[in-house]
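Support request, please re-run this one:
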Amino acid sequence: MEIILLERIERLGQMGDVVKVKDGYARNYLLPQKKALRKTKDNMALFEAKRKEYEAYNAKLKAEAEALSEKMQDLAVTIIRQAAETGQLYGSVTMRDICEAIRDAGFRIERHQVVLGQPFKNLGIFDVRISLHPDVVQTVRVNIARSAEEAKRAAKKQSDAQKAAEKAAQAEKEVADTPAAE
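Re-run finished. Output below.
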């Protein structure tokens, strides 16, 4: 099916592009979500007539997403779960759990905005992408631990490791910048 995109969609195209997609994707997702129109002469004319409205609406959504992204800068959330001694979780941490933790931190996001390849099944600190808008992506640090105390220890340990790595990189840069004696 050929459709006209009403907004930028990752891996598909920009607003106004005419793209060919599978019928089910168009019927079940793009059309009901008002992200696209079927490609017909009438809809092409309608899109061209309302193009400025669509661009303004998308610009407004992007500005809101950028403002939220600024507020979410350096956001870290902690999720407490039971785990075995080896660090493997009894269960897993999913998009829903991460979304709930971010909401508890005071940010309004939807579950589909959390970009997660697969659920986390181990304790640890992970960086998770939050897609606030197709053009605005923010990274949130998720700390999965058995207790709040353990989460603090893990965060401090990672912070110390980061500082050490930054120091080593700085020292390496200084050595590279010094002229070699001949």
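Residues 2 and 19 are 6 Å apart (CA to CA). The domain at 72-160 is CATH 3.10.430.100 (Ribosomal Protein L9; domain 2).
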